[in-house]
Write a structure and sequence with these properties.
Blueprint lengths: L19 H12 L17 H5 L20 H4 L2 H8 L3 E5 L4 E3 L8 E6 L7 E5 L5 E6 L3 E2 L1 H5 L8 E4 L3 E6 L1 H10 L3 H25 L2 H16 E8 L4 E2 L5 E6 L5 H8 L3 H13 L3 E4 L2 E5 L12
Antiparallel strand pairs: 1-8, 2-7, 3-6, 3-8, 4-5, 4-7, 9-10, 9-11, 11-13, 12-13
Helix pairs in contact: 8-9, 8-10, 9-10
The structure holds adenosine-3',5'-cyclic-monophosphate.
């Protein structure tokens, strides 16, 4: 899933419109292409001998038959047979947070399938544009690098950085295209993924032009909580979240995002994000635990036309 494929549509009062400059910056960062060379995972050679020995072209891939792929991801949408065939392609290797999977402008065209190492914690990758601004997040079950595979003469449209320990299945672009051709649900699933991405971008642009920063952020946080939240309980104490057994139900967003990254996603400056977070904290809607944002189940979200 691409955070966040839109599930709800909301309008906003035009009186809360934000600057067109902010909007155009985000739009530009999605479409500008400037070739640039940087070392890539692909340039560092094929998979290590260890990784090759774990090539999924083995019957061992059967244990992934029951893997809990997150909802609306490429893998979740494929039929079990197609899923098995995709996992049998290419090689896999572990990645650590901070490792760059592919840099912006790179000419390589492998396709990557992201997978969590632990079925209870979703792996994530951050997608950043040429200006280093966060454009999107991909999680376990998503394919990454499909754009260059579709047009082999193009360069990577964004930098992809792993943000939690993950296993990455890598396959040559041509093999991925063959997979799509040979499986009835292949192309359809890829199109649905790209449609989600377009819809999300459209919704963000609507929000950017119509809604106040706090509303944009509230919607994003609730979407993140729905898609990537881990159920928990909290007793908010003003700043942090004290754990408690009988306290408010909440969702801890498993992906760590700083204010700058949140600002990139909703088209706002870091100080505006700080103010919006403070407002939500004061209303008992969010708190912070180990630098993870916790979204608290509270009627107060209705103020922003959302409810977790
Ligand atoms: N706006 C975006 N939203 C989600 N994923 C993206 C976005 N821009 C780029 N990507 C992904 O990042 C990858 C970078 O390499 P590719 O251009 O081959 O394919 C790209 C997509 O898989």
């Amino acid at each position: 899933m691409i955070i966040g494929a839109p599930r709800k549509r909301h309008g906003c009062d035009r009186s809360t419109a934000t600057g067109a400059a902010e909007l155009s910056q985000i739009v530009m960062s999605e479409f500008l292409l400037t070739p640039e060379s940087a070392p890539t995972v692909e340039d560092s050679g094929a998979a290590s001998p260890r990784a090759r020995s774990r090539n999924m072209n083995t019957p061992q891939s059967g244990w992934l038959d029951h893997w809990p792929w997150p909802e609306r991801t490429f893998m979740e949408r494929l039929s079990p047979a197609s899923r098995r065939d995709l996992l049998a392609l290419g090689t896999q290797r572990p990645f650590q947070p901070g490792e760059v999977l592919s840099p912006y402008g790179d000419p390589a065209n492998s396709v990557y399938l992201l997978r969590s190492r632990d079925s209870k914690v979703s792996a994530c990758a951050k997608i950043t544009g040429v200006d280093g601004k966060l454009l999107a997040i991909r999680v376990s079950g998503d394919v990454i690098g499909e754009i260059a595979a579709l047009e082999p003469s193009s360069r990577r449209s964004a930098t992809v950085t792993i943000c939690t320990a993950a296993t990455v299945h890598r396959m040559p672009g041509a093999e991925f295209l063959r997979f799509l051709d040979q499986h009835p649900d292949g192309w359809q699933t890829l199109c649905r993924t790209i449609a989600d991405r377009l819809a999300w971008a459209d919704q963000r642009r609507l929000d950017f032009s119509d809604c106040a920063v706090t509303v944009r952020l509230a919607r994003l946080l609730v979407e993140f909580a729905e898609s990537y939240g881990r159920r928990t309980t909290v007793r908010p104490n003003g700043n942090g979240c004290d754990d408690g057994s009988t306290d408010a139900a909440a969702w801890e967003i498993t992906i760590r995002l700083n204010y700058e990254e949140l600002g990139n996603l909703v088209g706002a400056r870091i100080d505006a994000i700080g103010l919006a977070m403070r407002e939500m904290r004061d209303l008992g809607l969010v708190c912070l635990r180990n630098r993870h944002i916790v979204v608290i189940d509270n009627k107060g979200w209705e103020k922003y036309s959302v409810q977790p």
